[in-house]
Amino acid sequence: MDISAFVLFWAAIFTGNILLTYFLGMCSYLSISKEIESAFGLGVAVIFVLIVTSALNWLVYYYILVPFHIVYLQYIVFIIVIAAFVQFLELIIERYTPALYYSLGIFLPLITVNCAILGVGLFMIIRQYNFIQTVAFAAGSGIGWLMAILMLAGIRRKLKEKMVPVGLRGAGISLIITGIMALGFIGFSGIVQIQ
Amino acid sequence: MLIRILEDIALMSGIGVILALILVLAQRWLSNYGEVTININGKRDLTVTGGNSLLSSLSDEQIFIPSACGGRGTCGACKCQVLEGGGPILPTEKPLLTKAEMADNVRLSCQVKVKSDIKIQIPEAIFNIRRFNSVIEEIVDYTYDIKGVTFKLNEGQSIDFKAGQYVQLETKPYEKIKQKVMRAYSISSKPEIRDRIQLIIRLVPEGVCTTWVHTQLKVGDKVDFTGAYGDFYLRDTAADILFVAGGSGSAPIKSMLEHLQEVGTNRKMTYFFGARTTKDLYLDEEMRAFEEFFDDFEYVPVLSHATEAENWQGKTGYLMPYFKDAIRDPKNTEAYLCGSPGMIAAVTKSLINDYGIAEEKIYYDSFG
Amino acid sequence: MKHTPNDKKIMAKMQAGVITYSGFLGKDTRDFNQIIADDEMVLDELGKTAEEIANRLEYFQQKSFDAFEASTLVDKIYEVDTEVVRGYLPCPFMHQGVYRKSYTTITNTKSGKSFTYSALNIHLIRAHHFFEGKKSHFRLEPRELVAELF
What is the pLDDT of residues B13-67, one digit of tens each? Predict the structure, then answer.
């Protein structure tokens, strides 16, 4: 594909937001958006893990899976790589920056099951991005995800839960809010083609 | 076809195995801190396996830094000075340390992880604290909610303490309670007896440990505790003594009186025991025996909620007015108080302002 | 909805035998966040904030401390009694600080209704709007508190 990495980066944040356009990464998004501090911590961790695992998975795909003709195993292999990397990252953070580990490290295991991570990895394959494009796309997706969770966290903080009908409290109203935000983001679509 | 499938499976497993190996090696290398040395007070060196908290590394070596929350980082009781090797201050420590303490390298030992050689400074008194294993020898019902429990130490163990100090008892999991907790109780037996101790334990509503003691413990059960802690103890002088206690606060006083009986004394002593009703009085016989034994000892129980029906002939109301008869020379009188902070505050204020006793001569063990 | 890891730890701390004998949830099957939300609805209805209730409970506790924990009559109709035992309780919401084990009982002599609470309860109400689960030992019903103590 012949799109500049720079354009991909911005497109991944706005026109093709991984969460608001593609609805990936909803689980942790819904449960951790209760407090802004935790949401921010998780978002930053997601950005970092996204960039590194996408890069790693790109390398694994083109240098191991393709030459050995086991492309159909990409789903399993990508997940294994993501899980291993997250575990490794946790060990490093605990050893060298314990202060960071205490405020952030608790979210790392949560990230392994974030489908946005696998989603970005699969998108890069489907859309046949090269390495630089992959990294830009992953960074943009991460920032887009962070933005989405911060927005929801901010809205939830201001929301008077008591005004919400009992049946919709919690997940219900969060999904409705997300839908409305997604509607807003539809306004960005079509500005740039990234696939 | 089959070959192809097997090949692919082998390849994928290969990838998995390689990643797993990388992780195992990383774990070994990153989480293994090897053996490290803890230098204490510049004198003593301990070699321990790195990676654990300072508090637990020390307690594994039989050095017990006090902790009220069991190492969870909420009470701040485990402060100690870490001169070198403690790493940066963690966000979990900051709320419990003052600026002066942080400048002085004071840290929470339950949060500091021992990852490399470390130098610390702790008060000498801590070395005397040990862990003891014991068996319940006797349980006595003193009142409807107070039991006296005797713990016989295992073979070869003996405890060294001063009358007035306390121990931390460890409960065992039972019924719906899955974890153990540690709770403090004053020793009520004399220090001359070193192979067993008695604790006076009152049932507290919702108390994990007291409920365990009152409903689960039987003679023959094994129990562990650490001690002895505290700087509430009898001073060896010739001054007159005023003992004041409320409720289960009588335990350390009993220990002090038994100790004085053992070593002999002719100090003038008066013991004011504050209780609510006659149902809360106990150890009366022991106190009368002390009155017979000592040259000059008087036991004065004072009830605050005595009802008509009980027909109580003794003193009632606040304790303070009755001190008058017990104090003959305020300059030569010491006071030992054990009980709730409110009682201690009231009594201390009265002793200083109304009776002229010096603040340094008033020793207390406050519950809260 | 999934719990954050923090919420899971708080739930664990509220179970029986961890901090207190029967825990903070009693026989309630609701999540503690739900308990807080439901009680907040009741408070809204009654027109009182949790802070006001906590301040009032603290007012009585302070009067009792002023009388050095002897039984005392406050505002002519409330009999207040406090008992303090040794030790400290941490807050199940896992922030720093421990609370004295002081148990205050207020009896409204006119209606005969009695409430018992600890220093920790005052903090739980003020900082977390948490009145404990139904049938828990120290559960305080906001409706009753407002009716009897104000």
Answer: 888 899 999 999 988 887 777 888 999 998 889 999 888 889 989 988 888 888 8
Vertex A73, ends A68 and A78: CA angle to 5°?
105
Tens digits of per-residue pLDDT, B157-170? 999 999 999 998 98
- Looking at the complex, report in whole angstroms how far the Cα of residue C23 sits from the nearest Cα belonging to chain B: 8
Contact across the interface for A30 and C44, Cβ inside 8 Å: no
For residue C146, the Cα-to-chain-centroid distance in whole angstroms is 13
Contacts of residue B95 in chain C, CB cutoff 8 Å? 95-97
- Say whether residue C100 is in contact with chain B using an 8 A CB cutoff: yes
* Residue C44 touches chain A, beta carbons under 8 Å: yes
Of B68, B178, B207, the CB nearest to C88: B68
Query: pLDDT of C12-70, one tens digit each?
Result: 888 887 888 888 988 888 888 888 888 988 888 888 888 999 999 999 988 888 777 77
**Inter-chain CB proximity A84 and B26 less than 8 Å:** no
Query: Do B55 and B139 share a domain, yes or no?
Result: no
The boundaries of the domain holding residue B109 are 35-126
Within chain A, residue ranges assigned H as helices are: 5-13, 26-32, 36-60, 74-96, 98-104, 108-112, 115-126, 131-158, 171-186
Single out the residue in B229, B263, B281 at which a domain terminates.
Answer: B229
Residue B5 within any structural domain of the chain: no
Q: Is A193's pLDDT higher than 50?
A: yes
For residues C121, C125, C126, C128, the Cα torsion angle rounded to the nearest 10 degrees is 110
Coil, helix or strand at residue B147: strand
What ipTM does the predicted assembly reach?
0.79
Q: Give a yes or no: residue A193 inside a domain.
A: no
Instruction: Domain of residue A145: give its range.
Output: 5-186
Q: Are residues B168 and B286 in the same domain?
A: no
**DSSP bridge pairs for B349:** none
Q: Same domain, yes or no, for B254 and B359?
A: yes
Nearest C-alpha in A relative to B15? A77
B275 and B332, same structural domain?
yes
Which residue, chain included where needed, has tokens 């004295």?
A: C100
Looking at residue B247, the DSSP 8-state letter turns out to be G
Closest-CA residue of chain A to B50? A95
Question: In the numeric block, which tokens belong to residue B314?
Answer: 């003794």
- The reply to whether B196 and B296 lie within a common domain is no
One domain for residues B252 and B292: yes
Q: Which residues on A lie below 8 Å from C44 (Cβ)?
A: 162
**Beta partners for residue B365, in sequence order:** B338
Q: C84 vs B177: CB contact, 8 Å cut-off?
A: no
Identify the residue among C19, C84, C103 best suited for mutation to test binding to B, counting B beta carbons within 10 A and taking the highest. C84
Domain shared by B181 and B120, yes or no:
no
Kindly tell me the sign of the dihedral angle through the C-alpha atoms of A32, A33, A35, A40.
Answer: positive
Neighbours of chain C (3+ CB pairs under 8 A): A, B
Which of B126, B151, B182 is the C-terminal boundary of a domain?
A: B126
Q: Which of residues A107 and B26 earns the better pLDDT score?
A: B26
In angstroms, the separation between the Cα of residue A5 and the nearest Cα of chain C is: 35
| Average of per-residue pLDDT values in chain B | 88
- The reply to whether B250 and B205 lie within a common domain is no
Write down the pLDDT at residue B219: 94
